[in-house]
Amino acid sequence: MSVLSAVATAIAATHQLTLTITDSERSVHTLGERTASLEEWAQDFTTYEVGLKGEGGAFIPARFAPCPAARCNGSGRDCGGGRDHRLASNVIEMTALVYDYDGLSADAMARIIDDVRALGLFCFWYTTHGHTPPACCKLRLVFPFSAPMPLRGKRQWSGIAWRELMNALDLPQCDIACSNPDRVYFGPEKPTEDAERPAGVITGKLLDWRPIVGDALERSAAVAVERVEAARPDESKPVDLDRVRARLRRITKPAIAPVLLRRVLADKVPTPPPHRRAAGDLPRREAWKRVTVALANAADPADSSEALLEILRKSYKDEVREALDDNPATPWETIETLLEGARESVATYRAQKHAEEIERPPVS
Asked: What range defines the domain where residue 141 resides?
């Protein structure tokens, strides 16, 4: 029986699955959606591309919203806002559950496939590029959902839904990186034409996440909203800026660039102007974004944003002094917007983390 005729015994000809397609694991802005029947996806997931790893394209079992127009949601390189950006915080729906296995024996791989058949669920399976049986088998399972799973924060997937699904299906533990909602997966690939690579489609019911996850996502979202509302700054409350400065001095995370904070705390411009910028120095907007993210993390929720901005004001004046007519300083309004966006993101993250801790199931 061919793959397609087997698929036709289920609802594969009519059910539509949407995946995000990207041309590279490193490409964070080149994203496109593809919606096709399971019958069509079956052809893709059982047909191997020949070449180097990653040359055959990749998919993400999720749908993304672009970054807000006013700001980038990422903590790394700033996209400027208003564009596609592969970030976990931009995922709005999960459309499938993926399992990755590395270093399996041939027997272990066969047992996992048998376990999947016993579940009675629809599943695509194939081996990945480095598959070298019998000692080092690499297996990927893709379970399409019967309906997309809406998310209101990346921690709803990694901390709640993914754990619930792992417990429910009770398959051997897979790569923990599969809990990342924006994880990129390469399609079926093999290094040479004559390399034997098995693949298949297991027919059955589509994975319905709703009776498994229940209303945990809705409850966690409600708790998160309450926490965010409770964490609104009190503009009338005095702020101990020395306390905030002390916390900034203790930040050592490279992504926030402590060297920028040292400059700001010394009332110096966080990054040199373009005519004096050395290799590795950040553009102004990116530098101010990292500084405001650090400031948002160092502040208490009730701290006034207007008061917190005073920590940056002398550093900003230094930037204004160094700016040239043909390359003016960053508008102060941009720094205000960056801080407000950073504080909103930090408040949301903390609220979602709290909600996740309430709803998080144990991993059996």
From this structure: 3-214
| Phi, psi (deg, nearest 5) at residue 178 | -65, -15
Are the beta carbons of 211 and 161 closer than 8 angstroms? no
Residue 113 lies in a domain: yes
- The verdict on residue 224 lying in a domain is no
pLDDT digits (tens, 9 = 90+) for 86-128: 999 899 999 999 999 999 999 999 999 999 999 999 999 999 9
> Residue 327 gets which letter from DSSP?
B
Look up residue 271 and give its DSSP letter: S
Same domain, 269 and 338: yes
138 and 281 inside one domain: no
Report yes or no on 104 lying in a domain: yes
pTM of the predicted model over 0.70: yes
Mind listing the pLDDT tens digit for each residue in 261-283? 999 999 999 999 888 888 888 99
99: left (phi over 0), alpha (psi -120 to 50) or beta: beta
Torsion of CA 174, 23, 189, 207, to 10 degrees: 40
CA distance 3 to 12: 11
